[in-house]
């Protein structure tokens, strides 16, 4: 909008229509600044150490916005009443100055707000670390349960903050590192619980202590990495030195070689030779590996030798061409460039084949998890000799999988996938010894239920990582073959084609900038409604209430749909949005069922109103489901469908904003004695008996953000207290 004002054409006369349009833009800028500054001022009031700086920046922004509105106000311009064409701004310089001040002050507010977010994450991390230290030192179950409950809440807060930060990161490499660290923390939360309980139950067991110490150490490393990413720093001022993969080395080498077509003098032959030497050194990871087949090893060695010869020929022609640019020499140079690049492509293809075929074979071989099963059986039998035998086999398996991850990193093709390979390697390196210590503990205490449960948890982590490797291998192959349309599935992101067979043939698309602008107002309304719903759910004392659970889940999904309208968040394509809308509507239908059950507990006079609102909710959810499932071919039809889905989601959220306070009021009314609550129906009993029904895998798969970790921690705390 500011660019529109600054770049208007300097015509001496303008029509009323044009001036009114400019006035509307000026007013829109001022209103947007007003809303922005209101948020900034609220942040300032909550953070006293930056209040003064933030307040000054907000005042400057508000003043600049008001100045722009005044300078674009048609009523303030002097022009004859009889003249249909009026003079353009009398002070364009003033608009430029105000725009500069506005952009400067808005940037200042954003930087200050960012500092506050970073401080919140660091503070949250420090709280988690302090509680972890307490957990390490506890000596009684009662004390452990109490502190672990606090730890769980702090971990959920940290997960929320870091999840938002991960979503905001623009650097895909940092985003992948953050995702890896957060995955470690989420998995280690359960490990910490069982490992600590095992240590408390068997305080003199050395293997149990080693097992627990390993979990705490890994969590601390993950917490530290999150802070490094957030603050963009390394301990002791070290620079991050990521190892260069063969893929990235070949890509850079080819770019330099092909650059000789444009400029014969932009690099030296020594630089090119050094680059090839580095690539060939990395191929030794394959040729020296005990797991590379003889055939692949021979081919890699042959291609390495050929690459050296092709480069020698290229350098020879290149040096001649520098001295004398004849047509024949330039043709020879082109042939040498093509042959060198072709050789490097063949080398890339060979190492890719070696790494992926090894990975496929290993993953297939280890799918039965025979070693893990044997460790569980021999551990329960207390057979120390057999456990020792199988731990040796697990160590061998670990070495194979670690080597597989190292080779896959060389051929992953993108930095985020490289980081995922490094994360997988670390996971196998750490989890292997932890399984061994957990198995040894069980063998020493074969009748211990908690030792058995602890081994199960670490085995599940190993199995989960093997399963993730199959997905990673598929992505690496997709990148190699040029199929990069869909990014990896994060958290509970619905997979295209999974929920609706009719959508399989449709090509996932993103909204362009113009479409995002059209739908921005609707998205903002949705955002405001999610805030209202969150405020209502926070009022409930019983956060485990099924109505609250469904309300929070719907709010979380609606927020992800709002982020989609901005081109952000986990929903990347229109298909993702449509799937999310379907799941959102299903969640609304489940809420309606919970409301029906709740109506049996309220006073007879209040029941009709609650049932009426419940029926309205079912109706709007059905409308949304029909819209989300309808086919749409072509860009225009797809955008219309997106618009309709967001609009109907907004309608559901509007109704939810009315329903939640009504239910809260009826609940309080009944508790106050205006009508005693009737005995809870079976659905309530079932929820309590099973921990909470809302936390089944199906439920978790339908919500976004860190809901899974919240439920995970809540369940653990609930079961521990029992």
Automatic annotation (TrEMBL):
GO molecular function, one term: actin filament binding
Ribosomal protein found in the keyword field: no
UniProt keywords, alphabetically: Cytoplasm
Localization per record: Cytoplasm
Cytoplasm listed as a keyword: yes
GO BP term, example: Rho protein signal transduction
Pfam families assigned: Vinculin
Gene3D superfamilies (UniProt xref): Alpha-catenin/vinculin-like
Any GO CC annotation of this UniProt entry: cytoplasm
PANTHER family with a match to the protein in the record: ALPHA-CATULIN
Assigned protein family: Belongs to the vinculin/alpha-catenin family.
Protein name: Alpha-catulin
Organism: Oxyruncus cristatus (sharpbill)
The encoding gene: Ctnnal1
